[in-house]
Amino acid sequence: MKHWEQQWIDYQPNDFEIAYDRWLQQGFHQMNPRKRKKLFRQMDQILFHIHAYLQGAAFQNEARERILVSGRIFDRSIVEIAHMKQLTVDQLTYIAQQHVAKGKVYSLAQGGLTGTGGYLLLGADFPLMVVLNLRAVQLIGLTFGHEVNHPYEMMLSLKLFHVATLPKRLQKQGWDALKQELTHYSSPFMYEGTDDLTDEKWFEQPMKQCLKSLSIFMFRKKWIQGLPVISMAIGATLNYRLTRQVTEFALRFYQYRYLIEEENFRYV
Predict the structure, then answer these.
(1) Distance (Å, whole) CA 150 – CA 111
(2) Domain limits for position 64
(3) 185: closest CA among 194, 175, 173, 193?
(4) What's the rounded Cα separation, in Å, for the pair 119 and 209?
(5) C-alpha span between 173 and 8 (Å, rounded)
(6) Which of 62, 78, 80 is nearest to 150 (CA)?
(7) What are the pLDDT digits (tens) for 193-229?
(8) What are 124-134's pLDDT values in tens digits?
(9) Beta bridge pairs of residue 156
(10) Between these two residues, 179 and 267, which has the higher pLDDT value?
(11) 228 φ/ψ sector (left φ>0, alpha ψ -120 to 50, else beta)
(12) How far apart are CA 219 and CA 240, in angstroms?
């Protein structure tokens, strides 16, 4: 885990990233504070609604059952999500990686379809990417034995999604904040922290999505053997990279949480 955290220590932002950060911050600071707060609150509400939708969806319930079935391969006494904690971290990682692999395939396919350049698909690209990646975070959390429909786990998974989608140069602070969240845990039915999620730093991700859509739009008429191959490759590659970034971050976090909880239990 320390080796994985080393990536942030070794990472050095380039001049363009530094200039972009300043430009973005200046842009938001020039906004009316009330309007800025309202914008962030609306984005937070969208994420809350997507989380609620996923929890009530039939495909999410089916995924829960598949997780339990996978868990019973290693331990036949598993009958509910909390029992997944009885497995070793390697076993849980193996099961989670099955969902990670599927999530990457879904993002790849969705990005390829978006790359065909249809206006409907371009407009739905960002919401679908939020859904796919938030669902991936939730499935990893479920695999490690955490019911993400409980208040504490819900907020933790949403904050984890938020940090996982940040640029690498901004993730270290978010990672430390997530580790700090674990020290405030008292009950899965109570959350004592703030419910703020998005901020000006997170808006780089929507900006990247806009640039991706623009690139797809520009190359949508460059057909090779009857397909807009270039724009499809742009959509598929960028969506795949985002899902890989999110799922790797989420998997590392829940591995860290498992090890911390196991260490605390050992000394109780």
Answers:
(1) 31
(2) 14-266
(3) 193
(4) 14
(5) 10
(6) 80
(7) 777 888 777 877 777 788 888 888 787 777 676 678 8
(8) 888 899 999 99
(9) none
(10) 179
(11) beta
(12) 19
